[in-house]
Amino acid sequence: MGRYVLRRLLQLIPVFIGTTFLIYWLVWSLPGDAFAGKCGDRPCPDAYVQAMMDKFNLGDPLIVQYGKYMLNVLQGNFGETFRGLDVGELIGEAYPNTIRLALVALAIEAVIGLAAGVLTGLRGRGFLDNLVLVSTLFLISLPVFVTGFVLQITLGFELKWIKTTVSASPAPWEHLIVPGFVLGSLSMAYVTRLTRTSIAENKRADYVRTATAKGLRQRRVVGVHLLRNSAIPVVTFLGTDLGALMGGAIVTEGIFDIKGIGSLVYDGIIGKEGVTVTGVVTLLVMVYLLSNLLVDLLYAVLDPRIRYD
Amino acid sequence: MTTTRSEVDFEETARVPGAPLLEVDDLFVEFRTRDGVAKVLNGVSYRVEPGETLAVLGESGSGKSVTAQTIMGILDMPPGVITGGEIRFHGENLLKASSRRRREVRGSGIAMIFQDALSALNPVFTVGFQIEEQLRLRKGMSRKDARKRAIELLDQVKIPNSKGRVRQYPHEFSGGMRQRAMIAMSLALDPEMLIADEPTTALDVTVQAQIMDLLKDIQVERNMGLILITHDLGVVAEVADRIAVMYAGRIVEQSHARDLYRKPGHPYTQGLLDSLPRLDLKGTELRTIKGLPPSLLNIPQGCPFNPRCPRVQDICKTEVPPQHRLAPGRLSACHFAEELISGD
């Protein structure tokens, strides 16, 4: 196991370099003048542009720029925006909101998805099964911005059950329930279907019959023997999804005005703040790669037949 | 509340003194499928006494496993429907018993082992966990005691290095060891009756013999009733006291093992024995039973074996043969049973 983790961590290095370089290159080769509109209505003075070019090494060849940038990042310095704000601090403020939103979304996905999946998987064909199948299909086919705006307008503006925007930072948990539902709704539908199939497939397995033949209670047969096996693909999915959720949700955060990583990236792109965008995406790449590694390790914990050495 | 419950009340329930250990009485089971009603069991009766081995013999689809699953109460319902008959354990009709009572009988009254131990054991739990689980939940044992008992059980089924093995997962066991672990698991609650559903079919021949010897030893030691479901006449000859031959959901012949081998009382049994390869007939063509078992959706009129029977007469096509009592403990469902055993 230890050697496997080490190998995987070593593999992260080339992936990390490759992705971050690509991002750096893409961000700094965006068309348009990065300094347009930075100095009010007039064009920026040459002296300012020159100072900025020096500060951000924009005169160097791209590969050298990237090298200098990465050296700083590796020392924990994400650099400054053109306006002089510390990107590390910006991320530090935004990330807790994204993590909270991600956790709420994951919890909703896991609880509702698993419950609906187990219930329909056990019951088999019938009204409930059809209801869940149709409603998950509906959720899967709805874009997030539709679910988001519809819930914001009905629950927020008309019924006034929720606050329409969150704004506050750090965002209070209870304000994140509806945004979390919006963000997690698609994956929730997947979790439901994945669980349903997995349960339906395993419920006639020989080991389930054995467990019944041992005289165990139905609750234990389902809750321990059946669920433990059926959960393997579901937990793997949830783990990967957590990695994706940690990457921020530009649309959901935008609709509910959550000051998270998604909004930060969006503002960065709009304002041509290359340092912010590169910094955030670099961090997200790390988070995603590590969470994928964790999922693979979790897989071995859940299924003892999988061994990595 | 769910974790411990003493099994005291189990001992006090409706047992009839002097009743046989297990009696299956005129059992009918149907599978209601989209294609129609499959008559899987059509009046199956047999009984097993303590210390006795009953071999249930038959082709695939003859209903031998379904009978066992109905006894255990693990038949898939639907599509299965029990349409008639009784299963009496110490005289108590299990088919009328509450689901709680049935659960109590499972494992501690009647236990079962399955053909493919790899799929019958849960892949994600250790062998020890799967044995201990019953001891903890059904007998209220502590984790430590249950572990000790699990190791003892693994020793009893002659698994070497039981202390290390108890921590391993089923896929880390070889085929034979896995079946031994399965047997250990079935013995955990000291059942009075064990049903072995083709326990050696998935194993290679040398291991088969070891497992059969083990089952026999354990049965004698514990004076358990044993139902051995198999399609292997070779396995049966060595261990069975009595044999029930099943065909199309009926028992066509029931007899002491020796008598059946000496003089089969049903043309189907005769056919099965004739189709065994024999050294003294080496070089000659192997005899088989012509045709296929009938579809259970559409069992032939009269004797279900009539389309394949070499001795078929007109009566066989119209009338279902009754069980003829040929000798004490010997039954045959053939119109010509007497002729079969009296002829040469």
UniProtKB/TrEMBL annotation, chain A:
Query: What SUPFAM superfamilies does this protein map onto?
Result: MetI-like
UniProt-annotated location(s): Cell membrane
Record domain ABC transmembrane type-1: where: 95-299
Q: Which residues cross the membrane?
A: 9-28, 99-119, 131-155, 175-194, 280-302
Example GO BP: transmembrane transport
* A Pfam short name: BPD_transp_1_N
Q: Which family does it belong to?
A: Belongs to the binding-protein-dependent transport system permease family.
Q: What is this protein called?
A: Oligopeptide transport system permease protein
The species is Actinokineospora terrae
- Upper lineage ranks? Bacteria, Bacillati, Actinomycetota, Actinomycetes, Pseudonocardiales
UniProtKB/TrEMBL annotation, chain B:
Instruction: Give GO MF terms, alphabetically.
Output: ATP binding; ATP hydrolysis activity
- The secretion signal range is none
Q: Which InterPro entries match?
A: AAA+_ATPase, ABC_Ni/Peptide_Import, ABC_transporter-like_ATP-bd, ABC_transporter-like_CS, Oligopep_ABC_C, P-loop_NTPase
Primary localization class, coarse: membrane
Q: Which CDD domains match?
A: ABC_NikE_OppD_transporters (cd03257)
Q: Which GO terms describe its cellular component?
A: plasma membrane
Where is it located?
Cell membrane
UniProt keyword Transcription regulation present: no
Q: Provide one Gene Ontology biological process annotation.
A: peptide transport
Q: How does it sit in the membrane?
A: Peripheral membrane protein
Which Pfam family, an example, fits this chain? oligo_HPY
**What keywords are assigned to this protein?**
ATP-binding, Cell membrane, Membrane, Nucleotide-binding, Transport
Domain ABC transporter per the UniProt entry, residue ranges:
22-273
Keyword field contains ATP-binding: yes
SUPFAM superfamilies xref list: P-loop containing nucleoside triphosphate hydrolases
What family is it from? Belongs to the ABC transporter superfamily.
Protein's name in the database: Oligopeptide transport system ATP-binding protein
